[in-house]
Amino acid sequence: MAITSEQDKKVRTADKAAISVLNHDSSGVETAFDRYLKMQPQCNFGRTGVCCRICLQGPCRISKKADKGICGAHAYTIVARNLIRAITAGASAHGDHGRHIVHTVMEMLKEKAPAYSIEDPQKLYRVADRLGIAREGKNDRELLAEVAALALEDFIKDSTDPCRWLESTVVEERMQKLEECNISPRSIHTTIAETMAQTHMGMDADPVNLIFQGLKMALCDYVGMHIATDLSDILFGTPKPVTTEANFGIMEEDTVNIALHGHNPLLSEMIVRVARQMSAEAEAAGARAIKCMGICCTGNEVLMRQGVPVLTNFLSQELPMMTGALDAMVVDVQCIMPGIKAVSECFNTRIVTTMPNAKIPGAYHVAFAEEEAEAKAREIIGLAIDAFKERKGKVVSIPQIKHKVTAGFSMEALDDLLGAVSPDQPFKALTDAIDSGQLRGVVLLAGCNNLRVLQDHSHNEIIRELARNDVFMVITGCAAGSAAKMGLMNDEAVEKYAGEGLKAFIHKLNEANKDKLEGNKLPLLFHMGSCVDNSRAYDLVTVLARQWGIDSPKVPFVASAPEAMSEKAVSIGSWFVALGIPTHVGVVPEVTGSSLVNGIALQIAEDVYGGYFIWEEDPVKAAQKILKALNERTWKLKLHRQMAEKYDTALSKSY
Q1: In the predicted model, what is the mean pLDDT of residues 568-584?
Q2: Beta-bridge partners for 310
């Protein structure tokens, strides 16, 4: 999509609702779209990763004039150190999320968090079985205590044993590879300390050694994410298919409109629950109801479990306030723009921070506490009702754009759907469709928004191209927010965009599950949840690998982050590569200042781990590269199967 006029340059989004707000706003309020333009041109030293700020002699910038830092560090050392520090920050963010969930579970078991309970005991049993915990003679709380204790060990233990959430969720061959390369972490917090020490001034200068440590750190990210996903399912329920709506049109003038933004479900689940109990207070204020809606990954959490509609994704988070209809934005952690506070002042929206490590100057702060979760939720909703009273009768401008969304496809939900076709081996329905050529393979769409590319455009172009080429797609995070608000996460999109093979496969699932779907049909993309729920997507890789009897680098699966933005995205992409998966990134990361480090990411990683990165900002070219990676794997899998049959031997597991 070409960007031509000055107005188009400011807008930089493919979302019609966002365009409507930006084009019609006359308040002069500054948004991320304005700040991006003011920042141009951005620093090329930083963009290529050759700016070092680790010690106080710098910053040092590698150029033709100065090919080494003051300490003598080469570009490859600087780029590698910067890269793995970014991975560490991403893993720390997800680890902090997971640790908070573990803490809440432990507080609940001590009777100190009465608002929480075991919502899904069946998920508890599955997790306990996977971890090798005996269930006989134990009640659910005793069993959960053992699960939580093992989770805590994966954060803090100092032994050389591998993380339980890693070794129990990948195929044996993959675990062997990680141990052979000495990148299997022993615990999250230990590895964070190791990595920060290793990248201190005067420490490791070997780029290969640094990259290997970065991959170990990335695997800690996977562990923290998986723990968060598993324990959230136990506390709040494992997602099942649910249908709602997305985009700005979900807001209504006569309701108290509350946006839930961030990543952690501990508070947002309580707000949704308590909002359903406070209708009388809202009606007394003159509102018809209280309406909760989601932004970013907190939005994904309450979407898939509670059917809460999607308001928008990361890059547009300031814009709902500019309609004049948003009464409160409640934030927890991660991906929260400080700029939301300045925008809120012009439109009477209450910004409410809730976590001690994510405050914004001038915002309301309601300190979240597990022991008072429902009371805190009630206090926050009260602030939103007060804001509604102040805006009642004032003019609002809500773009009437919204789309149907079907979401909530956990691994358990997929198992149920596919089991209607293949009861004994549910995922054989998917592997058979790939083996027969009906499907080209599986792709995960994930990641954020980034103003270096046109918001939502890359996500949606890649989705449409892969759909035309019969790719089964799962989706998480802000990629899911993009697809939802653009009308791609529903059954209508199947008829409009899917190739004949994909369409036939989804129709087959619809027919087999018609008694379960309550009149709804399956969508073009299968929503698996928030950023931490990329762990579910890798569980799909593991299940497919076990179904075929191979190591993960042979599975026809590719991950794609068309608009990657955060350090978390760097970390997620890195563990996908270490776990054997080609990973497309649609915004070239800060590694191109070293041909050595860039070469490790694009080529050498495949030789060692089977996974590798694909940098490509053009979405059409990116889709073709993703399809090429799938085709190579399906071809190799077919060839190896033919050779095994010809010579009457077992199928080769290696890649």
Answers
A1: 97
A2: 246, 294
Cα–Cα dist 527/304, whole Å: 8
The alpha carbon of residue 503 and the mean position of all alpha carbons in its chain are separated, in whole angstroms, by 26
**Which residue reads 């997620």 in tokens?**
572
What's the CATH fold of domain 75-236?
Answer: Substrate Binding Domain Of Dnak; Chain:A; Domain 2 (1.20.1270)
Torsion of CA 430, 435, 437, 440, to 10 degrees: 60
408-646 carries CATH number 3.40.50.2030: yes
18-27, 361-370, 568-577: least confidently modelled range: 18-27
* CA separation for the pair 345, 352 (Å, rounded): 13
Q: pLDDT tens digits, residue range 232-273? A: 999 999 999 999 999 999 999 999 999 999 999 999 999 999
Cβ neighbors of 426 (< 8 A, separation 6 or more) are 414, 415, 416, 418, 419
- pLDDT category at 219 given cuts 50, 70, 90 is very high
- Segment holding 579, helix H or strand E: none
Which residue reads 């939580």 in tokens? 148
The C-alpha atoms of residue 235 and residue 311 are separated, in whole angstroms, by: 25
Checking if the pLDDT of 4 tops 50, the result is no
Cα angle for residues 382, 385, 386 (degrees, 5° grid): 90
pLDDT given for residue 436 in this prediction: 95
Mean pLDDT of 453-480: 97
Per residue in 182-209, pLDDT (tens digit) is 999 999 999 999 999 999 999 999 999 9
Q: From residue 482, give the alpha-carbon distance in Å to each of 315, 461, 475, 488.
A: 10, 11, 10, 8
Q: Is the pLDDT of residue 413 over 70?
A: yes
Token pair, residue 134, equals: 């005996």
Judge contact between 570 and 445, C-beta under 8 A: no
Token couple for 96: 């902090």
- Give the three-class secondary structure for 569: helix
| Orientation of helix 567-578 relative to helix 207-236, angle to 10° | 100
Instruction: Give the contacts of 475 (CB within 8 A, at least 6 positions apart).
Output: 444, 445, 446, 483, 489, 525, 526, 527, 528
pLDDT level of residue 2 (50, 70, 90 thresholds): very low
pLDDT tens, residue by residue, 53-90:
999 998 999 999 999 999 999 999 999 999 999 999 99
User: For the residues 375-390, what does the mean pLDDT come to?
Assistant: 96
pLDDT category at 8 given cuts 50, 70, 90 is low
533 vs 225, 475, 629, CA distance in Å? 7, 10, 23
Q: How far apart are CA 611 and CA 342, in angstroms?
A: 43
Q: Does domain 242-391 have CATH number 3.40.1110.10?
A: no
Q: Where in the chain is the domain with CATH 1.20.1270.30?
A: 75-236
What pLDDT is recorded for position 478?
A: 94
Mind giving me the DSSP string for 430-492?
A: HHHHHHTTSS-EEEEE-----TTS-BTHHHHHHHHHHHHTTEEEEEEHHHHHHHHHTT-SSHH
Residue extent(s) of CATH 3.40.50.2030 domains in the chain: 242-391, 408-646
H-helix or E-strand containing 233? helix 207-236
* Helix boundaries (H) for 237-339: 265-275, 279-284, 296-306
C-alpha 217/C-alpha 379 separation (Å) is 39
Give the integer Cα–Cα distance in Å for 623 and 616: 9
Q: Which tokens go with 302?
A: 């309450």
Helices 265-275 & 207-236 angle (0-180, nearest 10):
20
